[in-house]
Amino acid sequence: MSNKLTRRAALLGLAGLAGTTGLGLMWRSSNSFASNNKTASPQASMGSAPKSGDPMTHTNVSAGLSPLIDPNAYEIELTEAQWRELLEPNAFKVLRKHATERSFTSPLNDEKRKGTFHCAGCDLPVYSSEAKFDSGTGWPSFWQSLPDAVRTKKDRSLFMVRTEVHCRRCKGHFGHIFNDGPQPTGMRHCINGLALSFKTDAA
User: Fold this and answer.
1) 119 in active site
2) The whole model's pTM is what?
């Protein structure tokens, strides 16, 4: 095991709770954090972070938005220095600093195999390939997330109000949600490929 993966395991813990996705427990896993995105190394451009103070929500697009009991609770909370050690530089800019990768730079934009897209920060399954569609924007796009996988908040940066979407377990920034997607939800989750990893379905 590489020194980086060993350090990741030490920071996130190896206590036998691998696969826990919705029990409100600190997640611990020995799964590899390798991502297809790391080979592409697109240049991410820094963006403005959303203002604080907006209420967080769980997002299950097919069921709408519902308020959290504790909007500030996350199962995995690391220091900025620890995240820098865990993530590749461009992935850190996107996941922790709300940067946006250049369009048409992520190989996941063209990914058409059946499988599941995971958070590149904590490996939580967040999007199914069945909800992926070609939006023509140059970013991986989905019409819904997996249940209990993401949260949203209002993003008032860039002189507009948008809906920012992030990992409900580690708060890693994914992208934004727009209401110009296909049915059945009419929503478009516009996601940075650097924020995701992809795992094909088992044969």
Assistant:
1) no
2) 0.69
